[in-house]
C-alpha cells in the first residue's frame, strides 16, 4: 500500500470515528432529551429566581440596612458609655448594630454591623463579646477586614495569647493600605521581637522601609531595623 493510500485510509477511519461519535451523541440526546430539557429548564428557573430575589428582596433589604446603620455609627463616634450601649441595642426607634446584624443577615451592611458591634464592645471593655462579633466579620470590604484582623490581634495580645496575636497580625499585613499596613507590620515586628525571632522581625521592619517609606520615616523604624539586624546576625 502506498503512502497516499495509507493516508487516505487513515482519513476514512478518522471520518468514520467522528461520525460514530456524533451518532452516539445524537442517540444519547434522543434517549434522554426529556431529562436534559428538564435540567436546562431547572437551571433557568433557578437563575431567574436568583435575579428576582436580588432585585425585589435583597436590594430592598440592603437599602433598609444602610439607612438603619447611620444612627448607631453616630452613637459609636460619640464614645460615652450611654451612647455605646445605644449603638449596640438601639433606642426603640433606631436599631443598633446587634439587631442590624441579626435582621439583615444576608446583606453587606449586616456584615459591617458585626465589625462595628465588635468595636463597640471593645470600647466598653468587653473583649470576649468583641471577639465574637469581630470574628463574624467576613472579607467583603478589604480595608476594614485587614483592620479587623489587627484589632483581633490587639485583643489576643492584651489577653496574653501571643501566638494567636501573631497569627492575626500576619493576616492583617497582607493588605496594602498605606496607613494600617505599616502600623500592623510594626506591631508584628514587635511581637516577633518578644519571641526573639529577629529574622522575622527584621523582615517586617524592612517591608515598611521598602513599601511604605513615608511611614517608615514618620514612625522612626530605622532604629528597629538596626537592632533587629544586630540581633539576627548573632
What would you note in describing this structure?
This protein has 234 residues and is mostly helical. The protein has a domain at 143-234: Serine Threonine Protein Phosphatase 5, Tetratricopeptide repeat, CATH 1.25.40. The chain has 11 helices and no strands. The chain has helices spanning 3-78, 81-89, 97-103, 108-123, 127-136, 142-158, 162-172, 180-194, 198-211, 213-218, 222-232. α1 (3-78) packs across α2 and α8 packs antiparallel against α9 (198-211). The model is unreliable at 44-53 (pLDDT under 50).
The H-level CATH homologous superfamily of the domain at 143-234, spelled out, is: Tetratricopeptide repeat domain
Largest β sheet strand count, sense and barrel closure: none
Low-confidence stretches: 44-53
Number of strands: 0
- What separation lies between the terminal Cα atoms? 80 Å
Sequence-ordered SSE layout with sheet pairings:
Layout (H helix, E strand, L loop, with lengths): L2 H76 L2 H9 L7 H7 L4 H16 L3 H10 L5 H17 L3 H11 L7 H15 L3 H14 L1 H6 L3 H11 L2
Helix pairs in contact: 1-2, 1-4, 2-4, 3-4, 4-5, 5-6, 6-7, 7-8, 8-9, 9-11
Amino acid at each position: 500500500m502506498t503512502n497516499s493510500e495509507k493516508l487516505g485510509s487513515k482519513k476514512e477511519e478518522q471520518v468514520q470515528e467522528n461520525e460514530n461519535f456524533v451518532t452516539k451523541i445524537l442517540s444519547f440526546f434522543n434517549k434522554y432529551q426529556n431529562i436534559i430539557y428538564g435540567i436546562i429548564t431547572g437551571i433557568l428557573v433557578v437563575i431567574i429566581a436568583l435575579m428576582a430575589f436580588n432585585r425585589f428582596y435583597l436590594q430592598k433589604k440592603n437599602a433598609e440596612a444602610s439607612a438603619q446603620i447611620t444612627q448607631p455609627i453616630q452613637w459609636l463616634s460619640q464614645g460615652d458609655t450611654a451612647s455605646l450601649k445605644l449603638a449596640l441595642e438601639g433606642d426603640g426607634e433606631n436599631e443598633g448594630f446587634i439587631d442590624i446584624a441579626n435582621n439583615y443577615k444576608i446583606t453587606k451592611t449586616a456584615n459591617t454591623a458585626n465589625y462595628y458591634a465588635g468595636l463597640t464592645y471593645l470600647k466598653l471593655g468587653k473583649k470576649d463579646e468583641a471577639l465574637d462579633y469581630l470574628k463574624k466579620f467576613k472579607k467583603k470590604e478589604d480595608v476594614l477586614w485587614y483592620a479587623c484582623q489587627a484589632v483581633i490581634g490587639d485583643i489576643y495580645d492584651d489577653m496574653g495569647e501571643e501566638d494567636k496575636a501573631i497569627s492575626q497580625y500576619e493576616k492583617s499585613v497582607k493588605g496594602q493600605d498605606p496607613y494600617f499596613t505599616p502600623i500592623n507590620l510594626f506591631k508584628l515586628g514587635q511581637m516577633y521581637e518578644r519571641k526573639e525571632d529577629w529574622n522575622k522581625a527584621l523582615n517586617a521592619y524592612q517591608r515598611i522601609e521598602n513599601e511604605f517609606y513615608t511611614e517608615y520615616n514618620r514612625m522612626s523604624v530605622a532604629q528597629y531595623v538596626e537592632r533587629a539586624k544586630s540581633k539576627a546576625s548573632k
